[in-house]
Design brief:
Blueprint (H helix, E strand, L loop, with lengths): L1 E8 L3 H10 L1 H9 L4 E9 L2 E8 L2 H18 L8 E6 L7
Amino acid sequence: MYAVVRTYSGQGGAELFELLGQREQDVRGIMTGVEGFVSYVAVRTGDGGVAVTVCDDKAGADESSRRAAEWVKTNLSVPVDPPAITAGEAVLHFGA
């Protein structure tokens, strides 16, 4: 599995995570449509938030980042600083 972490802070970060909370069905549809999608979580922080996507492989994680950027550009009415992106092979992944 491969994970990508997008950290949004600065301009537009707080507004983005407010919108994510309001548009769950939109975000769910975009992310679950990625081939090899495994999981997605968005976490609000003091100045924005962090979105984590796990996919079967790097190609899926890259596609999730492309879709996320497109969704932000299309749906947010304020400018958003580009996220810091961290990605790599998952060494552990489990759920309840």
